[in-house]
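TA notes. Do not distribute before section.
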Amino acid sequence: MIFALMIKPKLHKCQFVNKTVYLDKGAVKMSETYISIEKNDEGFKYYKSLWEHRGITGIRVDTIIECIEEATAIKRSKSSSLLFIAIVADDIKYMPQLSILAEEINVPILIATSNYNEDEHHKALNTGACFYGSYCDDPEKNINAVLAAVNSFNRAKRKKTASNVLIHGGVMISLSQRKAFVNDVNVELSRQEFDVLRLFMKNRGKVLSYKKIYQDVWGKKYEANSTNNMVRSAIKRLRKKVVGDGEENSLIANIRGTGYKMSFN
């Protein structure tokens, strides 16, 4: 679903609140892919068929984390490229991760909603979206508005940045913003907890000793007895916040007498 529903609710009068841009028909390649973050599969299939007539393939995902993984795979591919990302705001709580998504994936991000909110509109555009609009009954008008926003974004030639996001399973951390998300839910971590998680995510599959963890995170002289307890306590808190009670070893496993290891699974 891109800016419309198959079974349409009561909609506001069609309004697209980004600046009016004339569509440059030659600017958009017709062999691209877009990603839609939404729950409504029927609505997605309807609009996917309309985009396919223009040579553009659609992929639907449920979460921001899945979107980043798909977008990264597309950008690494030599046979396809990513045209834009659409977020159906009725289905997704996107605002906490929006700036991370914009920072990590340098493509236009468009927000669609059936409940236009002026404050959210301004916040979305200031946080990383290039377009925020309410649904419109006319599919062609919706699509042309999307293409206009894409053209406007591409003409701005935003500078690409190095990757600042690490993802493992349902866990995502932003290195630049020092934020952590589990299944798209923001998790509050202390400085030590975040740095421990970052260390493990950068070294998945490797056994990290107590000494390595302590020196990297705390940056102080290692003393086996007292410092090992500090490491254990930090990892215990981290496991509980990231995985939950009863599943601690599914993410960070204890290697008896040595240290810890984050699994690849």
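Switch to the second chain here.
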Amino acid sequence: MEQEAKSGLNSSHWASPVHARFRQRDQALLRLGESLVKEQGIVSFRFSELAPRAGCSAGTLYKHFNCKEDLLVAIFAKHVELLTERQPELMSADLNHAERWLAMHLYGAMAVKQTSWTLGFNALAGAHGIVDKVSDYRLQEMQMFVEQACSTAKRVVEAARIEGQLVSDDSEIEVAHATMVACQRGATTMINNPMIAKNLNFEEMAKLYQSLALITNTLNWRVGLTSESCERVIKAVEEQLLALEQEHELAAAF
């Protein structure tokens, strides 16, 4: 019984005849849950208020989410999913390989500005016992979207090597990628943080571009970043951020 409770949703939910209705209700609860979290705060929001707000029983709510942490992970996963859906557009943007690789990481950091409150749970996830409360299904869903985001950025590097546009070895690429991700993640914790962002001014995309460019230039690209790259990359990223914002608004409307 304990294992069943921990597992939460399983494949039988999605394979059942009521799959479509269950999925529809799951998405509705996610939207209402996100609204509740934004209204009451990520730490103090009352999970018990979600069922009456959704017009369902507590039993129905617990069929979808084991606890408030389960809901938070599901909301965060949904935002990561929307973010990754825009990445292929950057893959096909009119940029060289070095610019494209930088654009992927710049986009990931700046997209957080639209969902900065979700970073609260991202930080809390490291606290003792938090993730232990989340169902296996929701953790697997979250991991799937995170892996998709990482693999897309790696494909840029793989394509560059295949085409002979990147001649750095595996160890150099691994170090550069890890440093790029660390810089990106650091920037996401500063954006919209009034205690830090104002001093470092990371809300200006050009400032973050310069930081990521230093890392990008450690690799041996046949065609690297140029004086025009900043404008080109920022334009491509801004286009995808606008599309992402429109998708968030559309998702919230249904």
